[in-house]
Amino acid sequence: MSNFKFPENFLWGGAIAANQAEGAYLEGGKGLSIVDLLPSGENRRSIMKGNVPGFKPQEEEFYPSHEAIDFYHRYPEDIALFAEMGFKALRVSIAWARIFPSGEDAAANEAGLQFYDNLFDEMLKHGIEPVVTLAHFDVPVNLIEKYGSWRNRKLVNLFETYAKTVFTRYKGKVKYWMTFNEINMLLHLPFLGAGLAFKEGDNVKEIQYQAAHHQLVASALAVKACHEIIPGAMIGCMLAAGSFYPYTCNPEDVFQGMEKDRESYFFIDVQSRGAYPGYAKRFFKDHGLNIVMEPGDADILRNHTVDYIGFSYYSSRTTSTDPEVVKNMTSGNVFGSVANPYLEKSDWGWTIDPKGFRITANQLHDRYQKPLFVVENGLGANDEVGPNGEIHDDYRIDYLKRHVAEMGEALQDGVEIIGYTSWGPIDIVSASSGEMKKRYGYIYVDRDNAGHGELKRIKKKSFHWYKKVIASGGADLEA
Hints:
With 479 residues, the chain is an alpha/beta fold. It has one domain: TIM Barrel. It is 39% helix and 14% strand. The protein has 16 helices and 16 strands. The protein has helices at 18-21, 44-48, 71-85, 96-99, 110-125, 141-147, 154-170, 190-194, 204-229, 251-273, 278-286, 297-303, 323-326, 354-368, 394-412, 461-471; strands at 11-15, 89-93, 129-135, 176-180, 234-241, 244-246, 308-313, 317-319, 329-330, 337-338, 344-345, 351-352, 372-376, 417-423, 443-445, 457-459. The strands form five sheets. An eight-stranded parallel beta barrel has the order 1-2-3-4-5-7-13-14, surrounded by four helices. The longest helix is centred in the middle third of the chain and has 26 residues, at 204-229. The protein is globular. Belongs to the glycosyl hydrolase 1 family.
């Protein structure tokens, strides 16, 4: 294992999301949000795809986000643990519906604003830089029910108002921002990604790309506002990344791999380069999609591109045009993938590919020539608590060790990386499955899939490992 030392100012830390950690889903005046309508169990995936039975929680369902891990009340304890590991940064999201409960309130909700003031103060007290996502799978439910969410142009201005409100409030506390978390998820889980609910007869593809256009314009307007309100701040986009490998060197497989990569790069091409790429225009034409764009949109996109590329990396993906090969599929952050015979899998079927991390980082840097920020990476696993409360998660240490080593290689390749906030430094509710047993953390939270448990925090073996990694600047990766 290399003993490469990362740059002195490298931002080591972790990442969580409001909707997976905070709980207190109606406290302090908060309105309902997307994830508050996502139950655990068999109905979850269908709802995430846009088959939404109603806009209120159903009596018979269990909603894990409603309490989550109660970060809303316990954040001082959790941040103290992050500080003990030596975190330089913590990525969090602001719950839009805490600030504007209906999404279109005449005034911001002071209780919500104050909560994040307190949260950022607590982080800064411990020398932890806040890295803040404006929309992490988050739309106030009122805007979904009333306007159809991001399919409606109204959300552009409502989001701009929200962004300006939080930039103004936290300009002295937050220097790193991101607009939309995993913006490309809109194509795969449209309700989770963008609050899109569909009914019989909808042109789903057209609605998705119309919503995408509105998000892209809203993102550019947020970049503009951030640069005006907080001089010197950095604001980025965020991609669910992971390169598609062709299963063979058959040119059809290679071309399909390129097309699947472009499906995701499309969003970042617009946010980073400031214009719709030619392949997207052809896609709209070939599929008969009519995307309404207002006069001035092209200028907004061109003039307000992002400062950096934030991305998540969990696994690579593999694609094939051979119907026999396609029968052997595996999962990975909801992106369908042919099983790669050269790679192992996690407990949840996600491909484990550290070299793919280096490949993806290099490809993103080559494509955009902008700094990167690794804002999610980690291993979801089923951790067991030993008789004396010990948790030996060597499999997680192995996963992270190999990925951090490849990130070091990418830096040596010349890739500029601002920092690394691994996903779920404390166990939180899984976005994809709604489970608690799919754990990512260095810190165990005593809560099960049914919501039982005392919420007690327990340090895992990986807690002490990551502390050592940070203290050594990434030079010491041994367990």
